[in-house]
Specification:
The protein is mainly β. Helix content is 6%, strand content 32%.
């Protein structure tokens, strides 16, 4: 019970490869061995995004082809913050697998109050027992009204008028606004999710300009980061501009970025950083997992405030048989762990690859003999 496929590709160094990708889903429950499910996941040849009304799209699935290129294992979680003890106004969730660790605080709905010329406040958080943890509920978004004001300003430069007022860390969120026409902010629904170390506070919501975003609160989710989203975009040519930072950049302390990553590339022909293939948010692509590691979840399951289980201790054996070539065994590497506590399910994605003279056509990959077996 698994899904497998043959794929041919080039590495970031443009070396042709031929490989096998296999995905296997398991049912999880406390104190029990994870068991393979009858229904197995599909393989995504393309990225899958969802639309947010009044904002931008956000990543739901990245293409599985990136899995072949990851230097670390992505840990992703799709689910909700839960309070098994009943209605609460706030709860802190966390995910820990090996060296990968992330915490997110979930709060009930709050609305912004404009209480003075220079003062913003928030209403008390409403109660909840279950709250989705996904990018639309985190800090971010797009300020279309500010874009219209800039476009209508006769003193604005042509470069300013070409830009958009979007939060590079999370275009799909809420709360990122340019500090203009404060009356329009009264009653604004605030983000539900934040990093407890970098909290979303009313006085940090507003940016002075579209480039004044690096000091805003980081966006908080356990879902995948889109390829054009900061900080992942720093590993390619899609780098955003920002005003000089006045406070520590959170992604540096989380280990997602290093100081040299913030510098401009010395040449446009510089090789692409393999970290571009990692889609997990900061903190959740910290190491290479092998399978068998302990998973620790807090306030992410409807029945258990703390849920612990071990990853399946079975590594797949991958075999491939190209035309007129003897059968080869490929070393399997765990590339992605997707945790879905609301479905009591995890999915592991493994890949193995070998160098070849040239990339194989997709039609040949579909017909190529391959085999997968799981061993403990």
């Amino acid at each position: 019970m698994h899904t497998s496929i043959v794929h041919s590709f080039e590495t970031f160094e443009q070396s042709p490869m031929l490989g096998v990708l296999v995905k296997r889903s398991y049912r999880i429950e406390p104190g029990a061995r994870a068991t393979p499910l009858q229904d197995q996941p599909e393989v995504y040849a393309d990225a899958v995004e969802d639309e947010v009304a009044g904002s931008e799209s956000f990543a739901v699935h990245e293409t599985d082809w990136f899995a072949f290129l990851r230097p670390r294992t992505d840990v992703l979680l799709r689910g909700s913050a839960h309070s098994p003890r009943g209605n609460v106004t706030s709860v802190t969730t966390s995910v820990r697998v090996g060296e990968s660790h992330k915490r997110i605080r979930a709060q009930g709905d709050r609305r912004l109050r404009v209480t003075g010329v220079d003062r913003l406040d928030a209403t008390a958080a409403e109660g909840f027992s279950c709250l989705p943890i996904d990018w639309p509920y985190a800090y971010g978004g797009r300020d279309r009204r500010a874009e219209a004001l800039i476009d209508a300003d006769p003193n604005a430069s042509e470069i300013d008028k070409l830009g958009v007022c979007t939060y590079p860390r999370n275009p799909a969120g809420r709360g990122f606004m340019i500090d203009a026409e404060r009356d329009r902010l009264e009653g604004l629904l605030l983000p539900n999710l934040d990093d407890p170390v970098d909290p979303v506070e009313p006085e940090r919501l507003l940016a002075k300009s579209p480039l004044d975003w690096i000091d805003r609160p980081v966006a908080a989710s356990y879902g995948p980061i889109g390829i054009q989203t900061f900080p992942r975009c720093m590993f390619y040519l899609l780098r955003p501009d920002w005003s000089p930072a006045a406070r520590p950049i959170r992604e540096l302390s989380l280990g997602w970025l290093a100081e040299q990553d913030l510098r401009e590339p010395t040449t446009l022909l510089a090789p692409i950083d393999p970290r571009l293939a990692c889609t997990a948010p900061a903190g959740l692509a910290a190491c290479r997992l092998e399978g068998h590691e302990r998973v620790e979840l807090e306030n992410l399951h409807r029945e258990h405030s703390r849920l612990e289980f071990d990853l399946p201790a079975e590594r797949p054996r991958l075999f491939i048989e190209p035309s007129n070539v003897p059968r080869r065994e490929l070393y399997a590497t765990l590339q992605t762990l997707l945790i879905e506590p609301d479905q009591d399910r995890i999915t592991l994605t493994w890949t193995g690859a070998m160098p070849v003279a040239a990339v194989f056509p997709e039609s040949m990959c579909q017909e190529m003999n391959h085999a997968v077996s799981f061993e403990r």
